[in-house]
Amino acid sequence: MTVEILPLSGLSAAEAKQAADALLDLDVGPDRLERLLVLDDTALLDEHASVYQHIDTANRVEKLLCVTVGPRAGAARTLELPGNLGGVQGWPVLWVSRPAGINWRVAKSAVANRHPGSTPTALDQHPLVKLVLVDEMFDRLHQKFLAEVPGRVASPGLWLAGADDEAATFAAALAVAIRRVCEPGPGSDGPFGDLLPARAGGASLSESGPFARYLARIAELDREASRVLEKAGGLGGVFKRGDSGVQRYVVKVGEALTDLRDLIVQVLRDASVAGTGGAITANQRDLVRNVGLEFKAEAGSRHPSRTAESAVEQSLVYRTVARAVQGGDSIPLVAKRLTATERQVTRHGSASYLPEVEKRCQPALLARLADPPLRLSRHAAVTEARRELGLDEASAAAQALTDLVLAVANREWSPTSVTSRDLAGSRAALDGTRKALTEHASMAEGARGGARGARLSRLGDSLLPVLCDLVLHAVGLELASPSASGTEALRAAHDRAAGMLAEWTRHVQAHGVADRPPFASSSAHDSPHVIEDDVAAVREAVLYPVRDEMWQLCAPADLSALDVDAPPVSIRFASRLNREAIIGTIPGDEPVWTSAGSFAGLLRLVPLRAGVAQSTWGTADAGRPAVTES
Fold first, then answer.
1. Which tens digits make up the pLDDT trace of 45-84?
2. Rounded Cα gap, residues 188 and 629, in angstroms
3. Residue 534, burial from CB neighbour count under 10 angstroms (0-12, 13-18, 19+)
4. How many other C-beta atoms are found inside a 10 Å radius of the C-beta of residue 16?
């Protein structure tokens, strides 16, 4: 809010002049005095006349409203005002003859009734003053006075729907949403399956590559051996004496399997990266491709037209984290799953898998295939003969080697697979964001803005999509520009998240809680949830008939000063929290939608009868002729 208050109540002329000087001073006062609200006592207006003249001649104030408190003084029963308050050209005046007010309807025969409830003893805490301090209300009130209130002096009346400070309500509801995303919740804490090498790497064998050719050769020789065995077995599956010709196919199967095994050993050794977690070189990548390994979506990941932002959004890590966060997983749960995933994607160098080659294709098997038996059991069936010749083991070994090379390709060589660095950076970004969010929520503890628990819960629900966008934005920024260490990533994410929270708060204050902050995605557009009971109360207050009984800030004895024949001027107002729910149901002028107001309802201005208010400079303005305006 930009409304400045100048409290003159109870001050002597000298003290009032000193307070005004401090406010108007260019060096120690505010940079701008766009809106000034003066709080004064009706009985002291004449004594403070020179102060109002000083404010006028200082040429610092753009708009001024005066709230003067207390009944009219003197036997003449006139409201004596300084020359630049009220009248044809003076600043508007809200005359509060009795802060506790009365219940009264605008009619000649209406009587005053006691207004229930208590009234704050401090004037700056009065509901009227708190309402006028809202920029939007100040501007509308100033405009209405100048355009519609005769003499620019009026008695204010209020009809309120209860407290609902949007800024405080937003802060409290955001704290509710933060607790939901930051506190550990239920869900699987295992690794993300989509990020594990077998699914993320996308490795496959090219049909024209050496690996595929060796496998095809082994399969073809195996089929030929089986055909010969079936032919040689004759009726009843009894093998004939002598060489059946199957041995030469078995030898060739062994030779092809040996070539496959040797090629795999060579690639595992030559494409290995020293240490852990490193990336293979361009030459090593060419070697991997040349032996017949290809990777899904590799071309897309190197698309030259893709921006850094879109590349991050297409990142498998980002998309997986986004699905989890937007699906309701808490930040601690997502971080825990990233840790579990990281344990299973760590690269150890392809050479570390060389012992596995020996296990999957043992030298003893290759020796058997190189020297098959010349005679087979006479009564052996084809299946038994295959086992005796080692063909089944050779086929299983070829498949095992294929599985191994694909697993190694997914984990060690794939350009599309997930790296430990991305996982660690994302986890650190989540931890830093969570720290900033919990700090923000702790500062908002106790802020409710008068809102009920159910409203805060529902509003918190509506803030979750934008809060999720904030979390994901912090993760995306880390992935787009990785930090040098986990500590640096955590600190950077904390600062980014704190900055976005401050930006969001400023955005709410400027545009209302229903408006998306800049970092929010287009999908996070849902309006805040409202509770129909609250909406009904707000709607009823805003639509309240302007002449009906309401809280008039007037003393019973001063009712005679009000012009009940003149049409009352009304200003309807409500929090932007309820804008979408009631905008189409209110006729006439659009209400004032406040982002930091304390109430929803109606402000009524009842003009004074002609001649009641007297704007005069009197003797306080030496050298200036006295002017009287009614």
1. 999 999 999 999 999 999 999 999 999 977 668 999 999 9
2. 78
3. buried
4. 24
